[in-house]
Amino acid sequence: MYKIHCLNKISKVGTDLLTADYQLAEELDGADGVLVRSAAMHEMELPESLLAVARAGAGVNNIPLEKCADKGVVVFNTPGANANAVKELVICGMLLASRDIIGGNHWVDQVKEEATIAKMVEKEKSKFAGTELLGKKLGVIGLGAIGAKIANAAVALGMDVYGYDPYISVEAAWSLSREVKPIRNVETIYTECDYITIHVPAMDSTKGMIQKSTIDSMKDGVIVLNFSRDALVNEADMLEALKAGKVRKYVCDFPTPVTAGQKGVILLPHLGASTEEAEDNCAVMAVNQMMDFIENGNIKNSVNFPSCSLGACSKAGRLAVHHRNVPNMISLFAGACAAENINISDMINKSKGDYSYTLMDLDTPATQQVVEAIKRIPEVLKVRIVK
Fold first, then answer.
1. C-alpha distances in angstroms, 292 versus 25, 75, 268?
2. pLDDT tens per residue across span 203-262
3. Tens digits of per-residue pLDDT, 278-327?
């Protein structure tokens, strides 16, 4: 019986997929798997029993990735499961920034008791006039599952769409409308576009990518949208640009003390994936990935270990080994199996940065002796008998 602990409320559509071999556990201690959304895990003591953490969402900044990797704990996320929800909110953000919908709504609330409200509307509505999206240039930085959907939706709205992603996947490229203009230099988006939306992960190379020098190169009156992470934008520089009129509006899904309440800033309380459908999709994807890993040892959509799969196990045994990415490991694993007269019928080894993962299908069941022998190999992080 595998124990799964939920650190946050996880959609029942997902947890209902757990079979009779699984039990939802009240405590983290002794858990084989963890399902999480936004709960902070950096200070948590991870139990030795833990095999995997599945994040029902894309961002994993709340999870200690290296700490998990060093313990041989696979961290999954669910890229694309909430893509449509975020896409719709970004389109909404562009409309909120282009048309003073929020200001108009506030005005109506203020005069709602006035008997002459209908006449007042005709006099005051010009104060809330805006611009249309049709024919405007949109720059999408990052063409993953979310960025590609936004680009396609903007094309359908009649926008002139520029897309930049030097690491675009084949799947994302296939999904893009042929009307999206591929851009080789991100500077072209900064200088040409009326709207710029960012869809890249927050890494050392991307943090603060929108700052004074990049803002200075943008068109006057540009609208910047950030539904990825607040750290991608230097907020002090953005406020200065708003004050100077260089940036018309800054729309962000991550309120901070710096930006909250500031003129020209439209902030939302991290609503990107807050739809029933997205929560269901993320939960289903997270649970399926965790079950496949626990039952078959297969890894898909991990952020700290490589994707690796031998499919469903039909052999007598299967071993999973988490280890550091150093030479000669495969021969050592094979030697340990040979010493126990265990034949390896199939094997796959994949690496991701400093970490590697090896799956071995065996003609005979794995023994505790071979597990202990592999554990003694330097740079091995975890060994598990999958079957």
1. 19, 13, 35
2. 888 999 999 999 999 999 999 999 999 999 999 999 999 999 999 999 999 999 999 999
3. 999 999 999 999 999 999 999 999 999 999 999 999 999 999 999 999 99
Contact 46, 68 (CB under 8 A): yes
Q: Which of 179, 81, 174 is nearest to 138 (CA)?
A: 179
**Cα separation, 333 vs 346, whole angstroms:** 13
Q: Residue 197's pLDDT is what?
A: 98
Strand partners, 22: 2
Return the amino acid letter for 361: D
With b meaning 16 or more CB within 10 Å and e meaning fewer, what string describes 320-342? Answer: bbbbbbeeebbebbeebbeeeeb
- Give the CA angle between residues 155, 161, 164 to the nearest 5°: 130
Kindly report the three-state secondary structure assignment for every residue of the chain.
CEEEEECCCCCHHHHCCCCCCEEEECCCCCCCEEEECCCCCCCCCCCCCCCEEEECCCCCCCCCHHHHHHCCCEEECCCCCCHHHHHHHHHHHHHHHHCCHHHHHHHHHHCCCCCCHHHHHHHHHHHHCCCCCCCCEEEEECCCHHHHHHHHHHHHCCCEEEEECCCCCHHHHHHCCCCCEECCCHHHHHHHCCEEEECCCCCCCCCCCECHHHHHCCCCCEEEEECCCHHHECHHHHHHHHHHCCEEEEEECCCCCCCCCCCCEEECCCCCCCCHHHHHHHHHHHHHHHHHHHHHCCECCECCCCCECCCCCCCCEEEEEEEECCCCHHHHHHHHHHHCCCCEEEEEEEEECCEEEEEEEECCCCCHHHHHHHHCCCCEEEEEECC
| Residue 1 burial class via C-beta count within 10 angstroms: exposed 0-12, middle 13-18, buried 19 and up | exposed
Cα 217 from Cα 235, distance rounded (Å): 17
∠ CA 156-160-163, rounded to 5°: 95
The predicted-structure confidence for 36-58, as pLDDT tens digits, reads as follows: 998 999 999 999 999 999 999 88
Nearest C-alpha neighbor of 60 from the set 80, 82, 36? 36
